[in-house]
Amino acid sequence: MFDALLDDFEDDATRTAGDDDLDNLVSDDLDVDDDFDFGDDDASGARAKRSADDDEDGLSSIDDNESWSDDPVRMYLTQMGEIPLLTRKEEVTLARQIEGSRRRFRTKLMECDYVIQAAYKTLRRVHDGDLPFDRTIQVSVSDRLEKDQIMGRFPHNLRTLEILLKRNRHDYLFAVNRQNPMPARLAAWQRLSRRRRRAVRLIEELGLRTQRVEPLLPVLEQFSQRIDELQVQLAELRGNRASIEEMRPLRREYLNLLMTTQETPRSLR
User: Fold this and answer.
1) Within a domain: residue 92?
2) pLDDT tens, residue by residue, 135-153
3) How far is CA 160 from CA 156, 164, 173, in A?
4) By 3-state DSSP, what share of the chain in percent is helix, strand and coil, each rounded to 5?
5) Domain enclosing residue 259, as ranges
6) Is 59 among the domain residues?
7) Would you say residue 70 lies in a domain?
8) Range in 53-62, 85-94, 176-185, 208-217 with the lowest mean pLDDT
9) Of 70, 144, 168, 192, which sits 20 to 30 A from 53 (CA to CA)?
10) How far apart are CA 163 and CA 171, in angstroms?
11) How far is the C-alpha of 201 from the C-alpha of 208, rounded, in Å?
12) Do the domain assignments include residue 233?
């Protein structure tokens, strides 16, 4: 599964001369910096003296109570009816909080390089006519001017996104390499973070629908789980004094997953 996901990006990924550093990281057996982060008897007797009509009424009442507790929809509606309605001010405040939470979630998700790459390729396909504009881009169907404005941004934003992705790849490799001095690594990570935020703004300007990026969240979770598994396996091999050749396949998979997301194991969690 992971090979298929990685291969999908390998076909379109923009590679630079710095990509050779990945092989160096493997062959030199360097560790990626994981910490870098950046009832009673009397009552029964009384009930026995009741008339038949009273008994029937009692049974009917019991049946009603049982059906009440067995009807979750009815119970839900009753409970909802007991909750006081929000005032207009409270509705507006809650709506703003929900919108703010959605925006923060979307922004945080799209700041991952894996998601930026997926968004870039989707937008490129829209620009090339391979994907329908209205189903991919969030825009009012009746607002032709807004659609024209977004279409006008496509060429510039896509070119800029391509450049940002190339530079981020280079800085990521530099930042996670323990052999580089820490001040320079921190500077590279800061540059990478700034470019990611700029990339998110460029994508937002093109109105990519949230539905296009939300499915990537479980993919990132699977990547994170696999990376954690590989860390444990590599640690066991080191403890058993395994050779570099024995560790190489796992280490290459580990580094490839990190390069795909351009995160550290900790930040990916």
Assistant:
1) no
2) 999 886 656 668 889 999 9
3) 6, 6, 21
4) 75, 0, 20
5) 2-38+105-268
6) no
7) no
8) 53-62
9) 70
10) 13
11) 11
12) yes
